[in-house]
Design a protein that fits this description.
The protein has 5 helices and no strands. With 167 residues, it is mainly α.
Length: 167
């Protein structure tokens, strides 16, 4: 009975064959897309890695610039100190050579000497903070108190106060 397929059966087989081919093509396309997507490096990830490397390089350059700046500042400060010392020695030597009076020499040396003794005396006393927050009298509250300026009495407006006085 089945030896001779009918045209309807042939059409059904051909139709099934096309349908199966189409399904296989779609499945193959999805699998190919997934494999292709996973095997290629992500462009966004590569861009972020490149940006991270650039940021690291910029930070390293900045640190190097800061290090060079402070190194040069230290050298210049040492040069300034040395120059000050040379000027002081020149003025002190000139004062001793050119001035006849011992009193003038002592006053020049005293004015040229750094005021270290004054600075040491002043550093022994610690400065106090301003006392704008301190109370006016021992029972009053300071201006930084939470209750400063807050009273339990209702405030009387000026025009109400004047009406009470007038009546």
């Amino acid at each position: 009975m089945m030896d001779n397929p009918t045209p309807v059966m042939k059409g059904a087989v051909v139709e099934n064959l096309w349908l199966m081919s189409l399904v296989a093509l779609i499945i193959g396309g999805v699998i190919g897309f997934m494999l292709g997507r996973n095997s290629q490096p992500d462009n966004r990830q590569a861009a972020l890695e490149e940006e991270l490397e650039e940021a690291k390089q910029a930070l390293e350059n900045y640190r190097e610039d800061v290090s060079q700046h402070f190194s040069k500042t230290a050298n210049l400060f040492n040069n300034l100190t040395s120059s000050y010392k040379d000027v002081y020695q020149h003025l002190a030597g000139g004062a001793q050579q050119l001035c006849q009076s011992d009193e003038i020499v002592r006053s020049l040396e005293a004015s040229l000497q750094p005021q270290l003794k004054h600075a040491e005396e002043q550093s022994d006393t610690t400065p106090e903070p301003p006392r704008d927050y301190a109370p006016k009298s021992p029972g009053d509250e300071g201006t930084l108190s939470e209750n400063y300026g807050v009273s339990d009495k209702p405030k009387v407006r000026q025009d109400q106060h004047e009406e009470k006085i007038a009546s």
